[in-house]
Amino acid sequence: MKHLIHSFFLVICFGSFSIAQDTFSIVAADSSTREVGSAGASCVNLFDYGITDPSFLGDLVPNLGSINTQAAYLLANQNNARARMLAGDSPAEIVNWLAANDAQSNPQVRQYGIVGFNGTTISAAGFTGTNCMDYKNHITGNINGIYYSIQGNIVLGQDILYSMEFMFRNASGDLSCRLMAALQGANVVGADTRCLVFGTSSLFAFLKVSQPTDAYNNPSFKIGVQTVGGTNIEPIDSLQSLFNAQKICGNAGISSSADINPFVIYPNPSHGKFTLNLAAESGLMWVVDMLGRVVLTSNIQSGVTSFSMDKPGMYVVTVSTNGGTWVQKIVVDAH
Fold first, then answer.
1. Are residues 283 and 316 in the same domain?
2. What are 286's strand-pairing partners?
3. Is residue 5 one of the residues assigned to a domain?
4. CB 3.0-4.6 Å disulfide test: which of 38, 213, 274, 317 passes with 58?
5. Strand 36-42 with 204-210, pairing
6. CA separation for the pair 164, 25 (Å, rounded)
């Protein structure tokens, strides 16, 4: 299901290495569970830059908060934001400190979304530099004790951010469910405007949530998807497929295998060879492994299609036709 959109511009700098990015993202924290989370997407081919973690722009500090660093992303600023959070600064104080102490003395090209706890007090803050590329903005809010910041630049307009906020606020389920719904709020062609030519919202997407007892950099829930342009694969739908394999929220953006399904896959489990029988019209099939990698894509016709998976494990098969999008898990047994 496609709704409205989100995007942000970011330059990823690792030493002299940089990537121009347009990105949309959200950070959130739940005062009742003290979960913290981050989600986002962008039209950048991360394979070109050797980046294996699509969630790099989100920094989760368990039991304290979440920081998204974007627009002109700079690792030093992200590290400084985390240090200020560990020192006890509130999100607003962190944002103000970053603006006054930018690692390259250029804060107006940055964009931040931060949520966090100070004892039992929770708050959210955002920052959008005046030199971020239009359309640019951020919005903060809270619902039922869950605080959030949504931010984007190089977006189509304020409706993009409003759509993400609407989906987040009206979702059912835990924090991860709300974050997934927020991404679905931006699941339209050209959400990141450079992806308009590819017919997708973005080229990578991620979602992660830390429990208060998690170790730093080891969140309890983390999924991500990386694709390349020209494959007609929607990363947010692929992310939803991975999400549906692990979570039940009651408002998934695409149909699950429990719905009336126009295809069947057999045998399942198998030793690697599968047959898909599609009762509907032609469509697109893609297979995602549990690391979020798209390992197979194929245009399929009504009737029987055979395909193979080489490595043992669980995979998520998504089939998209004019009638909708459906998901089914398959398992490859060890030989």
1. yes
2. 297, 318
3. no
4. 38
5. antiparallel
6. 9
